[in-house]
Amino acid sequence: MHILFISPRQCWPAVSGAKLREYHLCKALGAGARVHYLFYTDPLRAAPTTTELPFCEAVTPVPPIRPYSKGHLLRGVTGPTPVSVLNYTTPDMEAAIRKIAGVGAFDLVHLDSIHLAAYEPLLRNLQPKARIVYDWHNIESDLLKQYASHGSGRARRFYSGLTARKMAALERRILHSAFGHIVCSLRERNELIELTPKARIEVIENGVDATRFSATPRPSASRNRLLFVGLMNNHANMAAVIWFTKRIWPGLREKFPQLRFTIVGTDPAPEVRALASEPGVEVTGTVPEVTPYYEEAMAAVVPLLAGSGTRLKILEAMAAGVPAVSTPIGAEGLDIAEGENILIVPGDVPGSQEKWVAAIEKLVPQDELWVKLAAAGRALVESRYGWDVIGKNVFEVYSRWVKTG
Question: Based on the domain organization, do 304 and 241 belong to the same domain?
């Protein structure tokens, strides 16, 4: 296969869930196919080359997108195209696609976000025989609807609701127009199939590199952190840690004064940095390696109140041998069993603080339950969620689709 892999971000260094998924899927495809990786660069980081991405035959960087302009925001209100799609539609990317897709034949074009949907007509024109496939990291209209319901500020909620409706219309269009789609969970596949029963949709779950961590989870007296790991300018992550710090942490801090709540993640927004002023709360920002934090973690907390897809943060905690405590939304899409390999507690409902305290209290002694959850979580990711397993699945799906008449 010859694959053109187009991304709205650069996947290296792989410091967020979306980048990890992109990096490992691209790596898996590159092991058995010729992959040309085309991407928007990160203005704060050096662009990767085939040195960092040796599984790619070629790597083409495109200048980064700019912050939302007034023109884009206005067109997002008055026109049919969602503002996020407008922002990822640039002359530089169009020129790069024309140059690459205009001179060589590709069997498949992988669009690593529906935010790149504006390029689909151009790609169909330049590569009429190529299978055009979208990777849905999330159902974006769902995320926007959630923000419209819970976001701060009336104007932002209105704009998010308007954009959600336009995004939903776009999603319906590309379900009809593209050859195929991959999603992160069965729930998302079922939701999209209900919209477009004839669409080709395969579940390619998120994964984890378990080899980064020790294979034998062990209790330790040094484990005194409750750990949250995630990209910290992401709205769902921001809302989660703010809610946890303000609503749940005071009760935990009072009962377990030896514990710290540590928020690890790239690009913390000012609202997240401000949480470091709360007693016992630490906001690290970008760290060179997350492994030392897991080695000191008594539990990984995933107090998400919104979002879709599947949570790499839970899989990573399981790979590290750290029990995970999550809301139902936080654990959505994973093949998990409450009380067997994870603890599930409510989100923002009456009595949630007491239930969170009770769940953490079960783990503080690091006795039989702690060891059971840690070992079972590790076993689950090794058997089901290793990137080698996930990568094999996506390669097989794309191979089959390319052979489909």
Answer: yes
Same domain, yes or no, for 380 and 391? no
Name residues of the chain where pLDDT drops below 50. 309
Burial bucket for residue 43 (CB in 10 Å: 0-12, 13-18, 19+): exposed
CATH number at residue 84: 3.40.50.2000
**Residue 404 confidence (pLDDT):** 82
Task: Report how many domains make up the chain.
Answer: 2
Give the tens place of pLDDT for each residue, 38-60.
Answer: 999 999 899 999 999 999 999 99
Residue 222 and residue 152 share a domain: no
This prediction's pTM: 0.82
> Domain range holding 44?
2-207+386-403
